[in-house]
Amino acid sequence: MKQLLIVYHSLTGGTLQMARAAAAGGGREPTVRVRLEAAATAGPNALLEASGYLFACPENLAAMSGVMKDFFDRSYYPVLEGLQGRPYATLICAGSDGSNAARQIERIATGWRLKPIAAPLIVCTHAQTPEEILKPKQIGAIDLARCEELGATMAAGLDLGIY
User: Fold this and answer.
1) What's the confidence (pLDDT) of residue 113?
2) Contact, 90 vs 104, CB < 8 A?
3) Angle in degrees, CA 54, 3, 105, rounded to 5
4) pLDDT in tens, 78-130
5) Helix axes 99-112, 66-75, angle to 10 degrees
6) What global pTM score does this model have?
7) Which of 5, 90, 145, 150 is least enclosed by beta carbons within 10 angstroms?
């Protein structure tokens, strides 16, 4: 059975909502197992067991979150030669831009020789003050539907063997 691994980090809940929506979309494919795992606990074994990946994190200070960076730091070399050609996509929850976090993940994925199946899906919350940045987020239905569709697309592609 194919497995879609969704590795996420979320401090204010926005990225978790996005990751859960993607997992719900992926779960529509009965022949693909969806594994949703926090970046703090995910590691090399989870990557090696999966057929494809969704990496989901907030952008903090114009970079991927530290917990997501820690996941990549712990996992990068142990799986370096074991993931070539596997598909991936990225979900970013950002206050204003998100592109730098997406770029950082893309560089890591390039090193692993992963294959991008979609442009990074960036949801902008427009949180700009300390109070807005730190308060719990509520991702809108349209953006959650986009995340769900990405998860469904990834799972369908894994099932059909097109990735």
Assistant:
1) 98
2) no
3) 20
4) 999 999 999 999 999 999 999 999 999 999 999 999 999 999 999 999 999 99
5) 10
6) 0.97
7) 145
Report how far residue 120's alpha carbon sits from residue 105's, in angstroms, rounded to the nearest whole number.
10
Residues 6 or more apart whose Cβ sits within 8 Å of residue 30 = none
Residue whose entry in the numeric block shows the structure tokens 């950082």 = 104
* Identity of the amino acid at 83: L
C-alpha separations of 109 from 4, 61, 135, 147, 163 in Å = 16, 21, 31, 20, 15
Give pLDDT, residue 47: 98
Backbone angles phi, psi at 60, to 5 degrees: -120, 125
Residue 67 near residue 40 (C-beta atoms within 8 A):
yes
The CATH homologous superfamily of the domain defined by 2-160: Flavodoxin domain (3.40.50.360)
Tokens representing residue 60 in the block = 């903090």
Cβ pair 95, 124 in contact under 8 A = yes
